[in-house]
């Protein structure tokens, strides 16, 4: 049976066979009637015909997806509730960097569960992201204040990867060589991630005991210290830090933000860097993630910081405004010179943690810390009185108890009483307290040791007096202004109202697939069985998670055509690294360590090159042709030249230029013929699901962006999940984890994130998406995404040239329009068009990627034809405005294009512009629901000259109309 007959027999008339009452009709924007209209405009009689014309026959799947039948929303809700109930939630006193916490209800409902926060995109367009940027600046201020260091970034992926980034930063700042020294009391998962990260580059990670001082016979560029340690011990590191500096090394301290409300911060001890996790600031444990990692640095290292930083600039009217500073750090630009491969942060979770600090304030946080410590002190004193040896006299929240030979029995008795403790070894048990620890928990712990608490409870403080914090923190007014629920609610709503997210309108970003994040998909993450489970809880406490993960990995393997999938990578960047490490492990196992060349097309995503470098590979760029396709002649040359050293090629498919390249199968053959592996970047998988499988048409490994194709929301720039899928021969080299609940998955290429299943807490979202759409719905979604992109290309082509097309003049799921001829003729830039779209009520498409001076547009399958038409009408209207500049109606500098976006403040007072107020502010006509940007266009150069990574003082905003320099 041929592909068309086999795959499209029931689909010849588009999607008219779909159920109008099922989830597919809720997820997919254009109705069957709309699709017929769009198909007529594009020139094809059916979806099947369009896909047959656009997608090369050589890559088409020979059989439909083998997935369970689609379920309705109510059934999926019930199924997820059952899975959550199969997870046994006990009082988790395991520690290891994960702690139960109370998410204030006002923050849970108005951030975690609010689409105005979770559907937003990364704030690259600052004028329409002021709310999120302020929230992130609060996060940076909180981290900087608590760590005692002046510059913090806007979050990293988790604590272990943050420590790895700190290690890489120290190496960049101190490239003389040597080893990385690591405190023996560091979290074990952090040590494992460090070894995974630095092994490819040949950097030794050496564990040492700080109590014995720095090793005299070892050269080292950096030191990582724990404060407090995994065992709970608190040590004064100041003398050790001085010694490390004397020997020319930098020092990073892995620390706990809650403890730092009571302890001298690392910056005041002389540390260069502080890293850790903000999880216990109101973010559920989520069985391991997502959580916001953090990094803060001393003065002089701020331009080495990985990821994103928020700073304060001014807009063109002189008003203060926030923006992402140092934007050239972005990996799409820096490529193999990037400071890291991180492209996803944990913005949504950073916002939660920041608002937790705003809500509680410094006094509230200190009170939580003292209660936490008091519980630990009560346990230590009672156990000490009963004859048990407490290993460390100084601790914050974790008590290490010596129980010769009976640790397992003690932990078992505690578990019977509903409390989970940590069995360190046969002779030691660790007990970690948190803000949720109750008197009943304390009593259960003591009963497990056959001990009882004295009537007076804890009588002494177990914090070292010489390390008591004396400096103030969180002194900015925001941390003392919103402590009532009314005040907090209004503050959150005020910030959300400044931003443009999917709840307001289409975000047509090419390469980023901003589709619907359905409520039914989202709501399950709030179930206590998913939210409140510790990642190192006993395996039989996580039966529901195990079923969900196994099913999801199986479904993703079926969708991609690969043999095995690991969901451990907690971002696309980590998925890339994991895939390349699998390739590296494969070559090493075959006795071919010389294979270290990674071919990367010139059009590739910027993270690809950075990931290859991190995996210990040499990057060789392959040219692209003028039509955007990969130059196969240059590929042949590169394969031949590097035949003995070729490790892999990284290629995005459909291409970064938004087309299905006919040459992909030949590309795979060439690389395989020369001994290399084919890495197919899954960023554009939304154009393949149900139509083609990378694992079938030549791929050996892919990572998938669950925050794109599979509906995990972008959250303003994170969370993300980047599972890695591999062919059978690479399966032994998937990520492992020493504490994985499945013993068979404790080897592999090592851990790439802190928890065995990465950001497990948001995996119910893609599980629900696949379960509700089923095989036919997933395929229809892909087809409609392709239709919508071609419909936009067709409507805009008479006004803006479409830069690249594939077979039959068609694009894939996105299209690039070329503004360069218009810019040459008029001076109007992509920035002008992007900012003007705000006045029409749209987020801008992707600007100048992958080609400078262009806009890349991706409508997704979720947008209705009415919204797509509204966008096209706006672009056509903007083209008319460009023509008005060309014919002299308006000078460019005084045109609505150059002066966009227009704020409500612009309409007040004198108007001296050559166009009307109505034209400026209401180009699409008067609309009572119009989105008003809070600021005018920002001065980007100013923002990079004045890098400020803490909140400005309140006086800065006293007279916002007055232009001024950065304080």
UniProtKB/TrEMBL annotation:
PANTHER family: GLYCINE DEHYDROGENASE (DECARBOXYLATING), MITOCHONDRIAL (PTHR11773:SF1), GLYCINE DEHYDROGENASE, DECARBOXYLATING (PTHR11773). This is Glycine dehydrogenase (decarboxylating). InterPro entries: GcvP, GDC-P_C, GDC-P_N, GDC_P, PyrdxlP-dep_Trfase, PyrdxlP-dep_Trfase_major, PyrdxlP-dep_Trfase_small. Its cofactor is pyridoxal 5'-phosphate. Residues 26-449, 620-736 form the Glycine cleavage system P-protein N-terminal domain. Residues 781-902 form the Glycine dehydrogenase C-terminal domain. The glycine cleavage system catalyzes the degradation of glycine. The P protein binds the alpha-amino group of glycine through its pyridoxal phosphate cofactor; CO(2) is released and the remaining methylamine moiety is then transferred to the lipoamide cofactor of the H protein. Belongs to the GcvP family.
């Amino acid at each position: 049976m041929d592909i068309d007959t086999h795959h499209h027999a029931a689909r010849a008339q588009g999607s008219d066979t779909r159920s109008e009452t099922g989830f597919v009709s809720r997820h997919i924007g254009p109705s069957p009637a709309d699709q017929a209209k769009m198909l007529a405009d594009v020139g094809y009689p059916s979806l099947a015909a369009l896909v047959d014309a656009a997608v090369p026959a050589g890559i088409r799947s020979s059989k439909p997806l083998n997935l369970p039948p689609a379920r309705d929303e109510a059934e999926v809700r019930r199924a997820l509730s059952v899975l959550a109930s199969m997870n046994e939630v006990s009082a988790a006193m395991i520690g290891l960097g994960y702690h139960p916490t109370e998410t204030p209800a006002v923050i849970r409902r108005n951030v975690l569960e609010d689409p105005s926060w979770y559907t937003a995109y990364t704030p690259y367009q600052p004028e329409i992201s002021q709310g999120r940027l302020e929230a992130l600046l609060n996060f940076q201020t909180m981290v900087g204040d608590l760590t005692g260091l002046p510059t913090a970034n806007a979050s990293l992926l988790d604590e272990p990867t943050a420590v790895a980034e700190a290690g890489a930063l120290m190496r960049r700042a101190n490239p003389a060589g040597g080893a990385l020294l690591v405190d023996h009391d560091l979290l074990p998962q952090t040590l494992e991630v460090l070894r995974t990260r630095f092994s490819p580059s040949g950097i030794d990670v050496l564990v040492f005991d700080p109590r014995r001082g720095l090793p005299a016979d070892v050269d080292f560029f950096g030191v990582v210290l724990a404060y407090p340690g995994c065992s709970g011990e608190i040590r004064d590191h100041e003398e050790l830090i001085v010694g490390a500096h004397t020997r020319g090394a930098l020092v990073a301290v892995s620390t706990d933000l809650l403890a730092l409300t009571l302890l001298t911060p690392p910056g005041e001890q002389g540390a260069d860097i502080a890293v850790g996790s903000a999880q216990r600031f109101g973010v559920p444990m989520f069985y391991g993630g997502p959580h916001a990692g953090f990094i803060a640095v001393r003065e002089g290292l701020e331009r080495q910081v990985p990821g994103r930083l928020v700073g304060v600039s001014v807009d063109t009217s002189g008003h203060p405004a926030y923006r992402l500073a140092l934007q050239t750090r972005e990996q799409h630009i820096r490529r193999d010179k990037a400071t890291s491969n991180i492209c996803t942060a944990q913005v949504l979770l950073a916002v939660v943690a920041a608002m937790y600090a705003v809500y509680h304030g410094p006094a509230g946080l200190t009170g939580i810390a003292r209660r936490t410590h008091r519980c630990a002190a009560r346990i230590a004193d009672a156990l000490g009185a009963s004859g048990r040896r407490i290993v460390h006299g100084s601790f914050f929240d974790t008590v290490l108890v010596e129980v010769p030979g009976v640790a397992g029995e003690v932990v078992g008795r505690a578990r019977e009483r509903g409390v989970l403790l940590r069995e360190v070894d046969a002779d030691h048990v660790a007990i970690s307290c948190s803000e949720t620890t109750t008197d009943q928990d304390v009593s259960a712990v003591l009963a497990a040791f056959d001990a009882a608490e004295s009537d007076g409870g804890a009588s002494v403080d177990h914090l070292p007096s010489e390390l008591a914090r004396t400096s103030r923190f969180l002194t900015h007014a925001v941390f003392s202004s919103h402590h009532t629920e009314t005040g907090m609610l209004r503050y959150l709503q005020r910030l959300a109202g400044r931003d443009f997210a999917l709840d307001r309108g289409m975000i047509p970003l090419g390469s980023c697939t901003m589709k619907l994040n359905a409520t039914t998909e989202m709501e399950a993450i709030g179930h206590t069985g998913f939210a409140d489970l510790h990642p190192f809880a006993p395996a039989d406490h996580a039966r529901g998670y195990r079923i969900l993960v196994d099913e999801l990995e199986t479904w993703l393997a079926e969708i991609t055509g690969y043999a095995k999938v690991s969901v451990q990578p907690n971002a696309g960047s980590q998925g890339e690294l994991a895939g390349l490490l699998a390739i590296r492990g494969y070559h090493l196992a075959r006795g071919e360590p010389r294979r270290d060349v990674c071919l990367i097309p010139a059009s590739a995503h910027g993270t690809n090159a950075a990931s290859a470098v991190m995996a210990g590979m040499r990057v060789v760029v392959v040219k692209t042709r003028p039509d955007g396709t990969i130059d196969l002649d240059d590929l042949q040359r590169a394969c031949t030249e590097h035949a003995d050293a070729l490790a892999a090629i990284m290629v995005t498919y459909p291409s970064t230029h938004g087309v299905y390249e006919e040459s992909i199968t030949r590309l795979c053959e060439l690389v395989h013929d020369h001994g290399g592996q084919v890495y197919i970047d899954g960023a554009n998988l939304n154009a393949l699901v149900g139509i083609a499988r990378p694992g079938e048409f030549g791929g050996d490994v892919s990572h998938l962006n669950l925050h794109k194709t599979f509906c995990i929301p972008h959250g303003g720039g994170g969370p993300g999940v980047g599972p890695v899928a591999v062919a059978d021969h690479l399966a032994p080299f998937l990520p492992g984890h020493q504490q994985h609940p499945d013993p068979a998955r404790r080897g592999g290429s090592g851990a790439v994130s802190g928890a065995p299943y990465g950001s497990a807490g948001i995996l119910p979202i893609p599980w629900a998406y696949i379960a509700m759409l089923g095989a036919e719905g997933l395929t229809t979604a892909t087809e409609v995404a392709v239709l919508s992109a071609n419909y936009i290309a067709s409507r805009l082509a008479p006004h803006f040239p479409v830069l690249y097309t594939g077979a039959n003049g068609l694009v894939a799921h996105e299209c690039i329009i070329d503004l360069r001829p218009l810019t040459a003729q008029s001076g109007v830039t992509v920035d002008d068009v992007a900012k003007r779209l705000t006045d029409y009520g749209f987020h801008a498409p992707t600007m100048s990627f992958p080609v400078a001076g262009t806009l890349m547009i991706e409508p997704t399958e979720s947008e209705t034809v009415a919204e797509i038409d509204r966008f096209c009408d706006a672009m056509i209207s903007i083209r008319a405005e460009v023509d008005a500049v060309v014919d002299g109606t308006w000078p460019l500098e005084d045109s609505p294009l150059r002066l966009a976006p227009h704020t409500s403040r612009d309409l007040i007072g004198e108007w001296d512009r050559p166009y009307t107020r109505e034209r400026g502010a209401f180009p699409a006509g008067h609309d009572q629901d119009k989105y008003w940007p809070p600021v005018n266009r920002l001065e980007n150069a100013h923002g990079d000259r004045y890098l400020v990574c803490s909140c400005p003082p309140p006086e800065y905003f006293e007279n916002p109309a007055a232009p001024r320099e950065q304080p």
